[in-house]
Amino acid sequence: MTMRRILIAAVAVAVAPAALAQLKGDGIIEPGEDEMAELARAVQNPVANLISLPFQNNTTFEFGPQEDPQNVLNIQPVWPFELNEDWNLITRTIFPIISQPELFPGQGRETGLGDISFSAFASPAKPDKMLWGKVLWGLGPAVLMPTATDDRLGTDKWSLGPSLVLLGMPGNWVIGGLMNNVWSVGGSGDQNVNFFFSQWFANYNLEDGWYLVSAPIITANWEASSDSQWTVPVGGGVGKIFMIGKQPVNVNLQAYYNVEKPDFVGDWGGRIQLQFMFPK
Questions:
Q1: How confident is the model over 108-133, as pLDDT tens digits?
Q2: What are phi and psi of 171, to 5 degrees?
Q3: Is 20 in contact with 39 (CB distance < 8 Å)?
Q4: What is the pTM of this model?
Q5: N or C: which terminus of the chain has fewer CB atoms within 10 Å of its end residue's CB?
Q6: DSSP assigned state of 135
Q7: Of residues 80, 79, 40, 77, the one with CA closest to residue 55
Q8: What domains are defined for the chain?
């Protein structure tokens, strides 16, 4: 973790010049508005034309028969491209670093890279293409790649499916959701993949870059037995946008309770996220 923090700090310093001014020039922040509040709205928008580098650490407590914690650090860079004056392509890649406790006696803990997921959203660049004039949207493919360093950390399957994002920004709110479903199309794994992922989010922006957030990750493994398919957490937390020199940074802390889950998953989980923003 120490070397990773040093690397990120070095990257942040190298690309930091005039971040807020650039955001204003790109139209992501409107001149005259509360800069921190508008920056918060931009970073909470998954289809904003804004490069970002989030580090999202998710811990599930009391995981497995030994009730040890499971930890997943998602490194998930978001990189937008301008296809033309009417359309943007927003790419999102998730590199999961997983520390998995044993599920069967004698296994021990396994730590390594899980399956990398990639999604790309074609999203309109102009307000006149919003749904009902108010709802931002994006649509594209989702790909799950068999990159796990151990069989316990992945599926050994290539999987594909559709991905959708919807977003609204009424007043101080940023509300929406990301969702996809992937099916296995090849690979050496013994089990087929039919997996649903969604992350619904509601952010309420306060003064000075503070905000309240709820962004539970809801999943369903359709190949599992009916009593083990869903993981449904509820909860939320608090976050803040601030500047390190000229570098905009987003930090939030959240806690969740699983109202529906497989037997081997614990009741409680926590999340801490550190996100760097890089105007194009």
A1: 899 999 999 999 999 988 776 777 76
A2: 60, -130
A3: yes
A4: 0.83
A5: N
A6: B
A7: 77
A8: 2-278 (2.40.160.40)
